[in-house]
Write a structure and sequence with these properties.
The chain is mainly α. The longest helix is centred in the C-terminal third of the chain and has 54 residues, at 145-198. Helix content is 82%, strand content 0%. It starts with a helix and ends with a helix. The chain has one domain (3-198). The protein has helices at 3-18, 22-43, 56-63, 67-94, 97-132, 145-198.
């Protein structure tokens, strides 16, 4: 886990407390400032200086998804996939070898992709929760995806506000530096001209 990942993890774990305790608000704002400052310094003045997180509005819309319905749909898909697997096995055992090859290979690939996709959807969420060290809210046994997206929305929103401020500061600094360089060049050219005319 990189330093930046650790800082983001700390921020996400303590975000709930931020709303209630004034001291933690100050600490967490400083942590967020450090995260944004590190990200802007890494890519300041380059083409990579784009907002590195999802748009807060997209994350908010994701938090509005009914994950219980999505979970039911995934379970139904797994049941349908199991039925499909049994049907494929029946067809393969009752068919002759000359007609079985394209069908069997394509269906095995289809079933493997379905198993992988459903397994991946569950594992990726579990890995995300574990990676950031998120804990369930009091009174809940497990972390609800909607809660994670709400945390991410608040983080992305705060991050974007700070990101814009930091980029404005960097832009002003670079413009000031460019103006100083142009002024020096103009003065240098002016001195040369004065010297040439007086000689």
């Amino acid at each position: 886990m990189s330093l930046l990942d650790y800082i983001v993890s700390y921020y996400l774990r303590h975000l709930d407390k931020v709303k209630h305790e004034h001291v933690i608000i100050h600490i967490t704002c400083n942590v967020l400032f450090c995260i944004v400052h590190i990200c802007t310094l890494l890519n300041a003045g380059t083409e990579k200086s784009i907002f590195p997180l999802p748009e807060p509005q997209d994350v908010f819309l994701s938090s509005q998804v009914k994950f219980d319905d999505l979970s039911k749909d995934l379970k139904k898909m797994n049941r349908d996939l199991t039925v499909c697997e049994k049907d494929v096995l029946t067809v393969c055992t009752n068919s002759s070898h000359e007609h079985i090859h394209p069908f069997k290979e394509k269906m095995e690939c289809f079933i493997a992709n379905g198993d992988f996709a459903s397994c991946l959807s569950f594992l990726s969420f579990s890995d995300l929760v574990e990676y950031f060290g998120l804990k369930p809210r009091s009174g809940e046994q497990e972390i609800v995806p909607g809660h994670v997206f709400t945390l991410w929305f608040e983080f992305c929103n705060d991050f974007k506000i700070r990101w814009k401020r930091e980029n404005k500061v960097i832009s002003k600094e670079s413009m000031t530096t460019e103006k100083k360089i142009e002024t020096r060049k103009a003065h240098a050219n002016g001195l040369v001209r004065v010297c040439l005319h007086s000689c």
